């Protein structure tokens, strides 16, 4: 529940359209709802500007569905990351959209978007993580553009998208293997860059550690680095930066 919905409830009481009892019923689960196995934070949107998002890995399918329905009931919107097709089918929520590559489920993302976030992936194998970032930022209300498969093995491909790079408020760069692409992009532009290492690569990629260390040790100043495969975190940070640009 966000501040605008709380204002609507309070105004309905003030105008006499709603009773105090009904208003209390609508607000009774603030700041959180205790489901015994989980405590759903309905207050997070008001505190942080980003609602609670369900991370599906490590949870029972039925538990994910119960938590998700609780969030949707109060907020009328929902985001689940690292989800399965089984979770999507079990939700039975109208307007739910499943993105199979990233395992992301989005419900009722705002139609009006603001700003401009650009997401670049080094290879097509990195697209699942890039898609998670895209769906997240879009769900939060940012306009997102994507450019895929422009890694350093064919860096000339990146030059064709110079206009998109120049127009972006913030850029997310997703890369596996040796993780060099964020440094290349960072050396060309003055925009904030969020680097996301992926677990994609051969043996010495070490499930993303090599890319992570390369990004952390970049000689380009001002690059923020997410955890391995954390497209969600990148989408959230990019949205916050993008929002600041338009306040």
Explained architecture:
The protein contains eleven helices and eleven strands. With 247 residues, it is α/β, with parallel strands linked by helices. The chain has two domains: 31-107, no CATH class; 114-244, Rossmann fold. Strands 8-7-9-10-11 form a five-stranded parallel β-sheet. The protein has a four-stranded mixed β-sheet with strand order 3-4-6-5, with helices on both faces. The longest helix is centred in the N-terminal third of the chain and has 15 residues, at 61-75. The protein is globular. The model has no long low-confidence stretch (mean pLDDT 87).
Structural class, please? alpha/beta
Strands side by side in the biggest sheet: 8-7-9-10-11
* Topology pattern, helix = H, strand = E: HHEEHEHEHEEEHEHHEHEHEH
Provide the β-strand percentage band: 15-25%
Query: What count of structural domains?
Result: 2
What shape does the CA trace take? globular
User: What proportion of the residues is helical, as a percent range?
Assistant: 40-55%
**What is the helix tally?**
11
* Largest sheet composition: 5 strands, parallel
Which key features would you list for this structure?
40% helix, Rossmann fold, single chain, globular, five-stranded parallel β-sheet, alpha/beta, 19% strand, 2 domains, 247 residues
Short description:
The protein is an alpha/beta fold and 247 residues long. It contains 11 helices and 11 strands.
């Amino acid at each position: 529940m966000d501040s605008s919905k709380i204002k609507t409830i309070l105004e309905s009481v003030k105008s006499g359209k709603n009773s105090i009892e009904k208003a209390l019923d609508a607000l009774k689960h603030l700041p959180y709802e205790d489901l015994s196995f989980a405590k759903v934070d309905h207050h997070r949107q008001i505190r942080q500007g980003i609602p609670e998002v369900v991370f599906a890995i490590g949870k029972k399918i039925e538990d994910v569905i119960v938590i998700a329905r609780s969030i949707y009931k109060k907020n009328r919107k929902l985001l689940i990351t690292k989800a399965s097709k089984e979770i999507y089918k079990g939700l039975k929520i109208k307007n739910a959209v499943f993105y199979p590559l990233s395992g992301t489920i989005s419900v009722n993302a705002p139609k009006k978007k603001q700003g401009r976030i650009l997401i670049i992936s080094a290879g097509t194998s990195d697209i699942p993580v890039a898609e998670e970032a895209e769906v997240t930022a879009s769900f939060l209300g940012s306009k997102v553009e994507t450019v895929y498969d422009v890694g350093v093995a064919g860096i000339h491909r990146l030059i064709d998208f110079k206009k998109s790079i120049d127009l972006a408020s913030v850029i997310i760069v997703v890369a596996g293997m040796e993780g060099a692409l964020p440094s290349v992009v960072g050396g060309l532009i003055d925009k904030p860059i969020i680097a996301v290492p992926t677990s994609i690569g051969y043996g010495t990629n070490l499930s993303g550690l090599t890319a992570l260390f390369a990004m952390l040790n970049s000689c380009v100043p001002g690059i923020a680095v997410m955890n391995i495969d954390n497209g969600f975190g990148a989408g959230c940070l990019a949205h916050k930066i993008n929002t600041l640009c338009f306040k």
